[in-house]
Amino acid sequence: MQFHRIFVPVAAVAGVMAAYSSYGWPGVAIASGLLVMWLLLHFTRLMQVLKRAANRPIGYVDSAVMLNAKLRPGVSLLHVVAMTKALGTLESVKDAQPEIFRWTDGTQSHVSCEFHNGKLRKWQLHRPESNETDAPALDSSQAS
What we know:
Blueprint: H1 4-23, H2 25-54, H3 64-70, H4 77-84, E1 89-90, E2 99-104, E3 110-116, E4 119-126
Antiparallel strand pairs: 1-2, 2-3, 3-4
Helix pairs in contact: 1-2, 2-4
């Protein structure tokens, strides 16, 4: 269960009540001002992440391998979008849990991430098979 959904509002109300009991209405004004500042900081971070993601193609990441190395279970979707600087391509049904997003790099390697209630549960890196016959071979006359 996600305790922060209950704990944060209860702590905010308790802080305002404690400020009122200690300092009266000026304490409520200060506590409310601190809460508004905290909300504005989170809103500003959200807007900065989305602003950076708006300038990139959907589902693109510079390196899928590096993204795979940086991911940890339990990080939020916003944190992953901030790492990739791009929104992921939605692979699952819209508004269904779990949500699956994919980020692909220039080598067609991709990371598929499964989010449940906005938190990363698991992810998988897929790298395409490199075919040795497709690569041009250097003969000894070219290597001088």
